[in-house]
Automatic annotation (TrEMBL):
InterPro entries: MTH1187/YkoF-like, Thiamine_BP, UPF0045_domain. Residues 3-91 form the Thiamine-binding protein domain. Transmembrane segments: none annotated. SUPFAM superfamilies: MTH1187/YkoF-like. This is MTH1187 family thiamine-binding protein.
Length: 97
C-alpha cells in the first residue's frame, strides 16, 4: 500500500518546519520506501508497518506540540510492489508519448 500523509503541529506558532522534520526523521529511520515533497510524505509497505510509521511520526510531533492535525490518503492494492516509483514512471512515459 501507499500512504501519503501530512502531520501539522498546532499551537506552536507560525513556523512548524522543525517539528515536521521530526516526523520525516521517523519515516526515514523506518527503512520503508518513501518520498517527501512540499505537502506530503508518501510511504510504501504493508498495512501494519506503514500505519505504525504514521503513528510514530505523529507521536514524535505530539511530544513537542499540544495538538497535531493529520491528513492521510491511502492506496491499498494487495500484491503490488514498487508503486511509489512505478506510478510516477507510468505518468512520465505517458508524457513522452
Amino acid at each position: 500500500m501507499l500512504v501519503a500523509f501530512s502531520v501539522t503541529p498546532l499551537g506552536v506558532g507560525d513556523s512548524v518546519g522543525d517539528l515536521v522534520a521530526e516526523a520525516v526523521r521517523v519515516v526515514r529511520a523506518s527503512g520503508l520506501p518513501h518520498r517527501t515533497d512540499a505537502m506530503f510524505t508518501t510511504v510504501e509497505g504493508e498495512w501494519d508497518e506503514v500505519m505504525a510509521v504514521v503513528k510514530q511520526a505523529v507521536d514524535a510531533v505530539a511530544a513537542k506540540a499540544p495538538r497535531v492535525s493529520v491528513s492521510l490518503k491511502a492506496d491499498v492494492r494487495p500484491g503490488v510492489t514498487d508503486a511509489l516509483t512505478a506510478k510516477v514512471e507510468h505518468i512520465e512515459r505517458a508524457l513522452r508519448e
